[in-house]
Design a protein that fits this description.
Elements lengths: L3 E5 L6 E3 H4 L8 E6 L6 E3 L16 E3 L8 E6 L5 E7 L3 E3 L4 E3 L13 E5 L3 E3 L4 E7 L12 E4 L1 E4 L7 E8 L6 E2 L1 E4 L21 E3 L5 E5 L3 E3 L4 E7 L12 E4 L1 E4 L7 E8 L6 E2 L1 E4 L21 E3 L5 E5 L3 E3 L4 E7 L12 E4 L1 E4 L7 E8 L6 E2 L1 E4 L21 E3 L5 E5 L12 E5 L24
Parallel strand pairs: 1-3, 2-4, 3-7, 4-8, 11-18, 20-27, 29-36
Antiparallel strand pairs: 5-6, 6-7, 8-9, 10-12, 12-15, 13-17, 14-15, 16-18, 19-21, 21-24, 22-26, 23-24, 25-27, 28-30, 30-33, 31-35, 32-33, 34-36, 37-38
C-alpha cells in the first residue's frame, strides 16, 4: 500500500537506506521526504533490494533542478515497476545500482537577457520578389514576441511564425521604389525569456530595394527627312540598362539604324531613311522587357518619335503645244511636276534659247508659259530646259532636270524676185518671166497669185 514517509537526519553525516527507512518492502506510489540536516548526507537505493527487484539504476530516475524552496525532487521506478517520488533537502549524495550522483542545492537564477539576430534570405529585392526574414533568439521568447514588436519600413511583413527559437516572416518590398533600403528592427525590451529577462534589440539586415521598372524615351533630332539627310535618334533611360540594351532590341522600319552607343543613360544612333520614298514615316520602337536595370527589373516599352520621310527627288516634264513655229506664232509650254515645287520654281530657273518665255504661272503641279520664237530666223530649234537642283519639293528634295521639247522655228518671211528675159518686146515676141524665191513656196504659189497688166502670163511652172 502506498504511503508517505518522512525522515530527518541529525547534525552530522546521515545515511538513509530506502529499504531500511521504509520499514520493509517499498510500496509503489509512495512518497518520501528526506532531510539530511547538517553534514554530508547519503540516500542509497541499491542495498538490500535483490529480493524486491534490483533494477534501481540512475537511468530510470529523473532529478529535477533545485526549486525556489531549496528542494530537489527525484522521481522514477524500479525494473520491478515500483514507482516512487523522493523530495530531498540537504541530501548531497545519491547511490544507485549503477552509479553515484552528487547533488547541488545552489540556487540557479537566470539573469542573462536574451538576444536576437535578424537575417534575410536575400540582400536585394526587385519587382515581384520577396524575402524570408528570420528572427533567431538565444532563448525562446515564448508568447512575448509578436508582429507588433517589429518595426518595418520599405515594405510589409506578413506570416510571422509564433513558436521556437527561430521565427520567420515574409517581407514584401513597397512597389514603385526606384531605390532604397528596407529596415526591419525589434526594440530592446519588447520581448522576454522564460525568466522574464528583457530581450536585446534586433538590428535590421541589409536589404536594398529597386521595384521601379526602368523606362526609355525615344526622340529624334529632326521630324522630317529628305534625300541625303539622317537623324540622330536618342534613347533616354530612367536607369542605366548597362549591357542589357543592344541594337537587336530596336525595331526599325522606313530606314536603317547604325552606330548605337553602348554606355550611359542616353544611347544614340543614326537613322538613315530608305531611298526613293515619295512619302512615309519612320518607326523606331523598343519592346517592353527587352532590357533591364541593374536590379534586373524588366524595362518598359519605347514608342517611336514622329519622323516623316520623303526621299524621292521631284521630276519635271516640259512639253509644247506645237512642234513648229513660224513668224507670228507662239507655243504654250507646260512644266508638269511629279510634286508641287511651291514657290521654289520661278522663271529664273528656266533656260531659253530661240525665243522668249513669258507669263509663267506660279502654282500647282502644272505651270505654263508662252514661248515666242525669235523673229527673222530662217530655221532653227527652240531650247527650253530646267537644270537639276533648281527647284525642290515640299520636303526640300532637289528636283531633277527638265529637258526641252522639240520645237522647230522658221520666222523669216520668204522673198521673191521677178525678172524678165527681155527688157523690150515687139510684135510677135514673148518674154520668159522668172520668179526666184528665197524659200520654196511649195504649192502655196499659183498663177492666181500674179497680177499682170499689158499682156498675159501663161505656162507657170
Amino acid at each position: 500500500m502506498a504511503y508517505t514517509y518522512t525522515s530527518t537526519g541529525g547534525a552530522g553525516a546521515d545515511s538513509f537506506n530506502l529499504f531500511g527507512t521504509s520499514g520493509g518492502k517499498p510500496a509503489t506510489g509512495s512518497t518520501y521526504y528526506f532531510d539530511g540536516g547538517l553534514g554530508n548526507d547519503t540516500l542509497t537505493f541499491n542495498n538490500g533490494f535483490g529480493q524486491y527487484g534490483s533494477g534501481y539504476i540512475s537511468t530510470r530516475f529523473t532529478i529535477a533542478p533545485v526549486d525556489v524552496n531549496g528542494l530537489i525532487v527525484v522521481s522514477g521506478s524500479s525494473s520491478g515497476g515500483k514507482i516512487f517520488t523522493f523530495t530531498l533537502k540537504s541530501v548531497e549524495t545519491l547511490v544507485f545500482a549503477d552509479k553515484t550522483i552528487q547533488l547541488s542545492y545552489a540556487s540557479t537564477v537566470d539573469t542573462t537577457p536574451p538576444t536576437l539576430s535578424i537575417t534575410s534570405s536575400a540582400s536585394a529585392l526587385k519587382i515581384g520578389q520577396t524575402a524570408t526574414i528570420s528572427f533567431t533568439f538565444s532563448e525562446d521568447p515564448l508568447a512575448t514576441f509578436t508582429a507588433s514588436d517589429i518595426a518595418v519600413s520599405g515594405g510589409t511583413l506578413t506570416g510571422l511564425t509564433t513558436t521556437g527559437l527561430v521565427r520567420t516572416a515574409t517581407f514584401t518590398p513597397t512597389a514603385g521604389l526606384a531605390s532604397g533600403t528596407a529596415s526591419i528592427t525589434v526594440a530592446s525590451g519588447s520581448y522576454t525569456d522564460a525568466a522574464l529577462n528583457a530581450g536585446g534589440a534586433g538590428t535590421t539586415p541589409s536589404i536594398t530595394i529597386d521595384t521601379l521598372a526602368p523606362t526609355v524615351a525615344i526622340t529624334s533630332s529632326t521630324t522630317a527627312l529628305h534625300a541625303g539627310q539622317t537623324a540622330t535618334i536618342s534613347f533616354t533611360f530612367s536607369e542605366d540598362p548597362l549591357a542589357t540594351f543592344t541594337a537587336s532590341d530596336i525595331v526599325v522600319s522606313g530606314g536603317t539604324l547604325s552606330g548605337l552607343t553602348t554606355t550611359g543613360l542616353v544611347r544614340t544612333a543614326t537613322f538613315t531613311p530608305t531611298a526613293s520614298l515619295a512619302s512615309g514615316s519612320a518607326s523606331i520602337t523598343v519592346a517592353s522587357g527587352s532590357y533591364t536595370d541593374a536590379a534586373l527589373n524588366a524595362g518598359g516599352a519605347g514608342t517611336t518619335p514622329s519622323i516623316t520621310i520623303d526621299t524621292l527627288a521631284p521630276r519635271v516634264a516640259i512639253t509644247s503645244s506645237v512642234p513648229t513655229l513660224h513668224a507670228g506664232q507662239t507655243a504654250t509650254i507646260s512644266f508638269t511636276f511629279s510634286e508641287d515645287p511651291l514657290a521654289t520654281f520661278s522663271a529664273s530657273d528656266i533656260a531659253v534659247s530661240g525665243g522668249t518665255l513669258s507669263g509663267l504661272t506660279t502654282t500647282g503641279l502644272v505651270r505654263t508659259a508662252t514661248f515666242t520664237p525669235t523673229a527673222g530666223l530662217a530655221s532653227g530649234t527652240a531650247s527650253i530646259t530646267v537644270a537639276s537642283g533648281s527647284y525642290t519639293d515640299a520636303a526640300l528634295n532637289a528636283g531633277g532636270a527638265g529637258t526641252t521639247p522639240s520645237i522647230t522655228i522658221d520666222t523669216l518671211a520668204p522673198t521673191v524676185a521677178i525678172t524678165s528675159s527681155a527688157s523690150a518686146l515687139k510684135i510677135g515676141q514673148t518674154a520668159t518671166i522668172s520668179f526666184t524665191f528665197s524659200e520654196d513656196p511649195l504649192a502655196t504659189f499659183t498663177a492666181s497669185d500674179i497680177a499682170v497688166s499689158g499682156g498675159t502670163l501663161s505656162g507657170l511652172t
